[in-house]
Amino acid sequence: MAFNHLPAGVHDALVPLSVTPVTHSVPMAENHRSDRSPTGPVSRVDPGAVLGRLASGPSRASRITHTEHVPPRAGRHAVWPDRIRAEVIAAVQRAGIEHPWAHQARAAEHALDGESVVVSTGTASGKSLAYLVPVLSSLLDGSEAPNGRGATTLYLSPTKALAADQCRSVKELSHPLGNSVRPAVYDGDTPFEEREWIRQYANYVLTNPDMLHRGILPSHPRWSSFLKALKYVVIDECHTYRGVFGSHVAQVLRRLRRLCARYGSSPVFLLASATAAEPAVAARRLTGLPVVEIADDASPRGELVFALWEPPLTDLQGEKGAPVRRTATAETADLLTDLAVQGIRSVAFVRSRRGAELISVIAQERLAEVDRSLAGRVAAYRGGYLPEERRALEQALHSGELLGLSATTALELGIDVSGLDAVLISGYPGTRASLWQQAGRAGRSGQGALAVLVARDDPLDTYLVHHPEALFDRPVESTVLDPDNPYVLAPHLCAAAAEIPLTEEDLTLFGPEAEGLLPQLEAARLLRRRTKAWHWTRRERAADLTDIRGEGGRPVQVVEAGTGRLLGTVDAGSAHTSVHEGAVHLHQGRTYLVRSLDLEDSVALVEQASPSYSTVARDTTAISVLETETEIPWGDGRLCYGSVEVTNQVVSFLRRRLITGEVLGETKLDLPPRTLRTRAVWWTVTEDQLDEARINPEILGGALHAAEHASIGLLPLFATCDRWDIGGVSIPLHPDTLLPTVFVYDGHPGGAGFAERAFHTARAWLTATREAIASCECEAGCPSCIQSPKCGNGNDPLHKRGAVRLLSVLLRGAAEGEGESLLEAADGEDEGPMGADSAADGESARA
């Protein structure tokens, strides 16, 4: 029997919610007018005092496991390069910025010299101005050309919301420059009647990689005058381009560079990144060009109080009688309520769409009990909303109409929400880079700010709130991407050939794997070689061969059955687990039941309902080894890395009562299996090692299963991944290895590099896994150490002590020095893994 744990699609929102009212007293918010301008004087907030009030309720203080005080920092000014147009400097000064910070001036200098540059500094450090000043100066020069568009700029944002926000900023800053600067957003929400004007006249086009891939590059003849004059390509929040998505974007950028060369331009790339390890290395891999790195942050910073918050244990019992903590969702909702009552402008970041909706609903109910007028000043913001809904929420937050927002990462990226006082982070967001990016949303006007990380009941979050050095004493991670992944590269070669026939000279642009893929594409009758070039042979659009966000097909539309109204969309990859027949679906605070899921037409029909339960999908998995690429001995056991084939099927769902978490029943589902060819890391143990660990056949399955769950939970600390990017399988006797084996694999076709990173950091990663299990205070296993809410086998069997003994023996056999460049890991039972840095010095080509 295989014990499975797949990429999690269900988070805290689906486990029991405590609905204890907020009983402790806090100062009431002023019922100030919603049309008050947020640009007026901002009252200073003492973050320590705000945290003190949050912790003043019954048993609240004991929930804070650590408080980090990040001191304020003075800024260092410089002067703009003398090549910047005087009109641009005057416009910047008119906006209230007399002198640039030193890193802004350096970035502008490199841009003017024609050197691609990445600015990797903290949140609110003025990265946007660093690239905007040279861009505006070049556009002003270009406006003097005979056609009025002698220079253009393309701005790429990972989200529509960020592009819209940046467009507003550009318009405000460039207003004194008149019609010389003509910014416009070009995305899926842009009305068709505006698109032709943008192609012909806009000189600063803001879009996203999806639109560049599907809309602009395939229609490049219509963009010829824009591409011919393209001087700068701005890539904002470039640290988000990682994993499979980042690998796709890297190939889209290579296609862009190829078309620019065809039209006679060679744009300079200006990249903005949150603080990251080796940003120039990641930027070079993303763009394919040499990139200068600017990472010395010269901007001032206000005081930041950062608290780690662990929800308390409840009287409830989970699966197998395990103790259950109050959910991060319920805890965050209460904290957001308290902050709103105090008049503290806050954003709560949540991992899942459903979690964002639930926190908003709970907070609104709590606020209505205190003051009905406050209930409407908290809302949810997530992907999947219709364009008009997103725009209205963004405007309400900017205007100050909203006091609190429960948001997914759709709002995380760079939106300039000035005047926020506090950020709540419901669950570790997967990387330290994302954690600091979210925390930096508060205090954006230079004032003090509060950030609170509320731990979920899972191994990684529990580990982090009790090991604050893992968050505060370590550099952020490297960005991992692999443009040479054949599953990524092949469809982009087809798209490039459809844009302009591919020649042998083009192949170096697309990397060393391109030449070997062409015969396969010819054999599949996707490309045909004629004379010296390869041509696209099909009638359909080549750009439609791939979804660059790796979501595996067109999104599933969520439609209200009675009215036919489109509520939103769900990506195809999560449709089986989130909108299966009988699933509870939340949208804008309303609850719906899924009546049917039509996979062929990609439509889920829903009807409004008020069930007293949530739903959790369960699935099973089989895995086979296709090729072992690398293996090293760990004592008698082996640590391996290679290619695997994973077959997954959602087989049922549980109904859990919202208040208690009680399982009301399990309903079988008839959904087709899905097959994935990907990369995996796996380890085996021998009979002698099992004897040494005192693992008998009765507990072997539970020990392996427990080690697998916990290792998946801890991997995001060592690889730049989210927990749902990876999956796992454990088998007491695997038919390919003929030994007890634990697999952890990338949840994307062709791999994403996370398993490779796991292989190279395995000693540190599994040492941390062993300590996380051993240090948990539960008796036999709980969600904080070895249980998973997504387990296809209902967390049965699991053996906590067996997993600790098994991992201890495995690690004693690890090759001497394996992973020590990453972490001085302990071989003994009592040493923990936190003695050194877990981030690799270099970055594997990878995910």
Describe this structure in words.
The protein contains 26 helices and 31 strands. Strands 1, 26, 27, 28, 29, 30 and 31 form a 7-stranded antiparallel β-sheet that branches. Residues 335-487 form the Helicase C-terminal domain. One of its GO terms (molecular function) is helicase activity. Residues 55-76, 820-847 are annotated as: Disordered.
How are the elements arranged and paired?
Layout: E1 3-5, H1 47-54, E2 64-70, H2 86-94, H3 102-112, E3 117-120, H4 127-142, E4 152-156, H5 160-174, E5 183-185, H6 192-201, E6 204-207, H7 209-216, H8 224-228, E7 230-235, H9 243-263, E8 268-273, H10 279-287, E9 292-294, E10 304-309, E11 313-317, E12 323-325, H11 328-341, E13 346-350, H12 353-370, H13 372-375, E14 378-381, H14 387-399, E15 404-407, E16 422-426, H15 432-439, E17 449-454, H16 459-465, H17 469-472, H18 486-499, E18 502-503, H19 507-510, H20 514-523, E19 527-530, E20 533-536, E21 556-560, E22 566-570, H21 572-578, E23 584-587, E24 590-598, E25 603-608, E26 613-634, E27 637-657, E28 663-668, E29 674-684, H22 687-692, H23 697-714, E30 726-731, E31 741-746, H24 754-760, H25 762-775, H26 800-812
Parallel strand pairs: 3-8, 3-9, 4-6, 4-7, 5-6, 7-8, 10-17, 13-15, 13-16, 14-15, 16-17, 21-25
Antiparallel strand pairs: 1-30, 2-10, 11-12, 18-20, 19-20, 21-22, 23-24, 24-25, 26-27, 27-28, 27-29, 29-31, 30-31
Helix pairs in contact: 2-4, 3-4, 9-18, 11-12, 18-20, 23-25, 23-26, 25-26
Protein name: DEAD/DEAH box helicase
Domain Helicase ATP-binding: 108-294
GO molecular function: helicase activity
